[in-house]
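Budget justification note: compute hours in this period were largely spent on complex prediction jobs such as the one shown. Inputs:
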Amino acid sequence: MTVQTWTYILVGITFALYIGIAIWSRAGSTKEFYVAGGGVSPLANGMATAADWMSAASFISMAGIISFGGYDGSVYLMGWTGGYVLLALLLAPYLRKFGKFTVPDFIGDRYYSKTARLVAVLCALLVSFTYVAGQMRGVGVVFSRFLEVDIDTGVIIGMAIVLFYAVLGGMKGITYTQVAQYCVLIFAFMVPAIFISIQMTGNPIPQLGMGDTLNDGSGVYLLDKLNGLSQELGFSEYTSGTKSTMDIFAITFALMVGTAGLPHVIVRFFTVKRVKDARKSAGIALLLIAILYTTAPAIAVFARTNLINTVSEQPYESMPAWFTNWEETGLLTFNDINSDGLVQYTASPATNELIVDRDIMVLANPEIADLPAWVIALVAAGGLAAALSTAAGLLLVISSSVSHDLIKKTFKPTISEKQELWIARGAATIAVIVAGYFGVNPPGFVAAVVALAFGLAAASFFPAIVLGIFYKRMNKEGAIAGMIVGISLMLFYILKFKFGFFDGGKEAILGLQDDWWFGISPEGFGSIAMLVNFVVAITINYFTPAPPSEIQELVENIRIPSGLENANNN
Amino acid sequence: MNSKPKAYWKENIKYVVLLLLIWFTASYGAGILFKDVLDTLKFGGFPLGFWFAQQGSIYVFVILIFVYVKLMNRLDKKYGYDE
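Corresponding output:
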């Protein structure tokens, strides 16, 4: 059977499964819609959190980015896992004890202020929308390459599926489809990795194969070989990278804190029954995430070595089928600058003839390694599972921010539960359509806004929540000022250094690199904006009155795990 | 706040600080700040600092959360907060 037939079969089966689960787990109340009824087991929640978290970026792009960045790619590996330690130790148990529906719920109640709630809603919407557009795009890319429909049709099919189970099932439907999606995506990620690890090193465990000797009897370590190849072609040593230590530090920190502050991840911990379940499911989630995250750097090394060996100084005429397939999508381009008919792949732009989009490394990897057709199709189904599960989680945050935080809690508290449920469904529908629009017409700055999403989460939510739990005297004046200053500073830095907004547009960005504050890139600036948020919040707090005594009691209450009342709609 | 919740909270903070110190050492220490020094040592085919940045720190993170779960469950029991 061809790759395409296999892809239709596997994608068809998995989609049917997701739809089946959605019908079986319809939401009947707002509590089911927002937090899946609050009775999800720690294991199911761990799996759902892992799928929720691992997006098209983790599945499709990350190994590719590491493949081209070597050591520099470590920022994503540490940043996107280390945040779970912060989440488990500093946030999840207390937010579960607090026991409401959304992150703005916590900010609004803890800081006894509608303004605080509105600022939080704004941040949640901004973060989630930027993120979800990227997911729909990922869906489109997979469809166009493997099912040969055009990207727009792919996006629309993806929208229809997500719409179906997110609108029907809310958090309940999303949770159980995410459990299934985790299984699909981890299987799809591991199978090719294990195959290739055996091929290249004889070691079936990719995490170990990465540090093993080559299978060709030379006794040379794979990483030594790759370091040698990279330097021959003028790239920096794979295990060293090019970023400054300061920047690596800042980016890792911003990603960790941003991860811990992302609303779609935080709300998953509202769905378990007890405080101890919240802690445990954070551990399970990270364990399940770590399986993919420790395999990704191995895939990166395998793919990079394979790519160089296959193309470097080889005649263009003898390139394998995957090469021309990807050329057709425009994600791989070859330009025979010196017209010698050979592919020169080098670090210097003057002699380099091959441009490979980082996003195709994971998808092309099984083909580069010449694996069977069903494995290639499996990767396509896995990429879709990763993108759809994250998109659904984000859509839920958007819809609950609108129906619960804006309508019910701020503008029209008199609506009935039934009305609120229908508003939530309507908001989810509109959100899917907006996300789909951005998937079809991607703003030229999708990559830039992802950095913004993490930076914003780091600069706004993280300090406000941590202070709200660990600093009893923290008042609304301090928290609101901190969030506003944090976000504004982050926005300013991104606009200045990522968009060149104040210096004549995108062309100016490269020239501005020398002006980066403390040598920190916009990706890493979230860590500075977060510190500024803390400093501003604590300073303002010092000069303004303490919060009312019932708020201080609330804080004392959330610090104690027992006596949990079930979340209600007040 | 009476003395029982206060004592519970104090022990909790002690655990959190200790675990976050390890969290920091494994990632920012071994994987970033002291990466070049550790790279002079080899761990199989891995330079050690590089291994910490791309593998080791992640294993440490997973272990840390499960240790925290264990410690807190014990602490909950000690203070009668488990249910």
